[in-house]
Model the fold of this input.
Amino acid sequence: MESKIMKPVLAVYVGLFILFLYGPFIVLGIISFQQGPEGGPQFPIIEWSTYWYRHLFGMVPPSRIAPLPVGDALIRSLTLAFMTMVTATVLGVMAAQAFRKHFRGASVVFYLIVLGMMVPGVLTGLGISLLSNNVIGIDRNWWSTAFVAHVVYTFPFAFLVMLAILNRFDASVEEASWSLGVSPITTFRKVTFPLIFPGVLSAMLFAFTLSFDEFPRTLFASGRDQTLPLAIYGTFSVEIHPNIFAFGVLTTLFSFALLAVYGILMALSVRRAKRMAMQEDIA
Amino acid sequence: MTRSDPIFRLDGITRSYGPLVALDHIDFTAENNSYIALLGPSGSGKTSLLRVIAGFEKPDSGRIWFQGRDITDLPAHERGIGFVFQNFALFPHLTIFENIAFGLRNGPVKVTEAEITERVRANIEMVGLSGLEDRSPDQISGGQKQRVALARSLVMQPKLVLLDEPLGALDANLRERMQTELRAIRERLNVTFLHVTGSETEALAMGDKVAVLDQGRIIQYGTPDEIYDSPNSSDVALFLNRYNLFDGKLQNGTFRGSFGAVSVPAVRANERDVYAVRYDRTQIFDTETAALPGPALPARFLASEYLGSSIIFLFETADHKTVEVDHHLSFGEPREMTVGQDYILSWDPEQAIVFGKEMAR
Done:
């Protein structure tokens, strides 16, 4: 009886929730097709066009609206996110691997690592800024100080993901490999890594996306050259045109593409993980 | 090396986990080219011992010698000792062929592709897995996995293979077949198997020698016959699951138990006074029978269990102790008995084994 009422109510609730979640994106998507260059970021749509998309790539005759200054910032952000992803994932895998054996002070080290994602970003950013300028005396750059800030922030995520994966990992396959005369390093490469690869993928995705749109830490730690979130914010504070929305749609599509790649790679390795799980079931 | 040379030797191996002592000063010498069964109840430290020999864990103290070399400080991958896991631990991301080729491909010695193929094929054939080379581990049965795990170890031509309850995950039918096969394979390859098991039948059936492990110590080591016929302590007799053990008091060569007082000719040193009679040496008589071979133990008949070649009769004594009688059917049909009725159990005192704190005469 209860579920007959509850079910539709919950369904409507979920529907509203998802609408709320994706509402901004839908509005953004619609307005990005506003007519240009006169049309602004508001309804109604004067006329559907792809003007602002062409505007992004400089494919329209010059007008009073300057092209979005995001080209360099985009390259910077992608590079930074990639650097952060690689570093944070490598560190995360190594740290989680270290935590498989109990060592003295393990819990203290654990909380110290996890603190990196708990401390408010503004504080970390400000701290790094002060440290580099006043204490060490080095310049702030997106590829140096901001990079460190990003790694400190994303490394705990990668670490936690890998910790969860390695927790469930059956160490006997590694021991089996050693007993066949295979060194621990080769064992890691040929046995452990292929089996924990789904986790590595997730850690990479976390690190990349978190770094790609990181704002507060970067604001203080990056110095003169801006990353994409900073550049977009910069244009916001002057005047808003639908070209930003067009750009937003493109970056979102890029994120979806990233997710799709992740999904495909994941599906491939989950099939492998399933085999492993079945093997354990029988044992 | 001849058969009598030791393949490995343990020298005072001790290993504890916090307050728990898993291995307590184990001294042990294993003959080359033999099948050694290591029997112990769960928690006796048998898996710990295997892991220490394999190099997965370090002993707190003591030395391990393998083929005349001290390997205590060598890491597992430099020991050249094979290991077969209870859960098989096959590499799930590799085919059967690649599982078996793994050590050859990734080991320190460069092996040519042709030799890898040849050795893997030979081993696959030996364990009877031909035709399954390209399957993945999730596409084969438990018994087949067991063979892959074995072939994967044997292809490296180790002189010692440690098997951690290798038959534990198999069903009874398969277990018996694998017992025979394991023995046959070992004999062909001139390799020593150290087979850990919690099953006394498995240990007695498979081992050329059986070591009984209890509370981190090897309490008896000998041939299956020696262990079976002549357990050196009441604990061993208990693990064998073939003896009725009676508590009582031993004094001046007389054992007093629930069956009265019996004079005992010989006593084996033990921590407690225990009187042991094998299941198949215990006989059943009617309550009126006058001519008994030995002491008389009144007991109530509870149930019987048909085992194919023999029948196990379960009795309960007045002090609520279960006593088992094993009647082998080659000795004729068993007597008719009524559940709940009292009978007299007796045995030839010469065939009993008496353990005592005090050594008699």
About this structure: Chain A has eleven helices and no strands. The radius of gyration of chain A is 24 Å. Chain A touches chain B through 29 residues (CB under 8 Å). Chain A has a mean pLDDT of 85.
